[in-house]
# Entry
Amino acid sequence: MLYACERLSGAAELGCDTETSGLDPRYGKLFSVQFSDGEFNVLVPLSEGIEIGPFAEILASPSIIKIFHNAKFDIDFLSESDIRVRNVFDTMIAEKLLTRGANQSSSLAETLYRHFAVDLDKTQRAKFNRRWDGIWTDELVDYALSDVIHLPQLMRKQLEWLGNLGLTEEFHLQMARLPLEKEGIS
# Structure
C-alpha cells in the first residue's frame, strides 16, 4: 500500500470513484475507494476492514485533481466518513454541458462509449447492496477499477472540447454552483 500511495501522490490527476451499498450516505455503507492515474489502479477495500489511511491525504490534496463522474454522489459518501476531498473535476457535469440539447445520456458507460468506444460491463453493480459480504472477488475488483481507469483521459478530452466550444467558463460556473463545499469540496 505504501508504494501505491507514493505513486498516486505524485500524480497531477487521478480518476476516483466509490462503491457503496445504496444511494443515501446517511444509511448506506462505503465499500471502497478506487484511484487511477490512467496506468496504475488501486482499490482500497474498506469493506474488508482496510483503513483509508494515507489515501485520505491524496483526496484532500489541493495539488492533485480528483476526477469523479457524478462527484456529488461519491463525495457525499466520503464526507459521511469524514474524508475531505479537494480540487475536483466532474466528468458528468462536463458531459452534460457538451451534450446539452443533443438528448444523450451522461452516464459514465454512455460517455466512455461515445468518446472512446469503451463498453463498460455494469452487471456486477447489483452485487453491491446491504447484504453483500464485503469480500472482493477478481470480477468485482475489475468492475470497480473499470470505472476509474479512463477518467484521466476523459477529463483531458472533455477539457479540449469545452475549450473548442467556448464552454470552459460555463463548466467552472456549473462546478461552482454545486453545493459541494459543505460536503467536503473546496
Summary: The chain is about 40% helix and 15% strand. The two ends are 27 Å apart (CA to CA). Residues 181-186 have pLDDT under 50 and may be disordered. Strands lie at 13-20, 30-36, 41-44, 65-68, 88-90.
